[in-house]
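Progress report, Aim 2. The chain analyzed during this reporting quarter is listed below.
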Amino acid sequence: MSTTINNIPVYDPSAPPAPTTSSGTSAADLSKNFLKMLTVQLQNQDPMNPMDNAAMTSQLAALNQVDGINKLNTSVTALVAQMQSANFMNLSSSVGKTALAEGSQVYFSGHAVGMGAKLAGPAASLKAVIRDSNSQIVNQFDFGPTPAGMNDFIWDGGDDAGKQVASGLYTLELTATDAQGKTSSPTSYVGAMVASIGQEGSDMKVGLSDGRNILSTDIVKWLAI
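Predicted structure tokens for the chain:
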């Protein structure tokens, strides 16, 4: 098998530069085209009815405004990219820490699990029930009167008898009762260790040790557990 190099292009410094193509939509192209049109308009205007100075000034101002907006958009895009990169690097330091995010599935691995209940209003009674994978009650708590807002608590992995449960998946159920006896289900939050940080477009994705894949904005608290 033979190989030929006759068709390989060779750089010639004396050759004219290759023509560049343009879509004609850049700020520089728009400005150049506008000036060409303005020159032709001035050359072919009616001497008895010349172009209004105010109209010419308005057109030039509009062109400068469009060019300025294009430059501003470019600067803002670059600034947003830098901020996203900085946020990504800062968020990477959270790997190994415990984050509290909305959820009801609890993965117990032998360590205490931080949880939370978000109440829209004060409750006369707040109860939490932990169920196993067979929907059997493992443990339950009665926190009594509870104020509105986020309320944190910790499950140490014990059952009703105080014995440590096996590692596995459990479910958190919350029930709040107000002063009139009306019951509701507050939003539940479960803590888990941050296992990974990823970036999908402009979104920062956080992978938790319990299998959840959430947005960084879904994290409401960092826990010292």
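The mean pLDDT is 82. The two ends are 69 Å apart (CA to CA). These observations will guide the mutagenesis work planned for the next reporting period.
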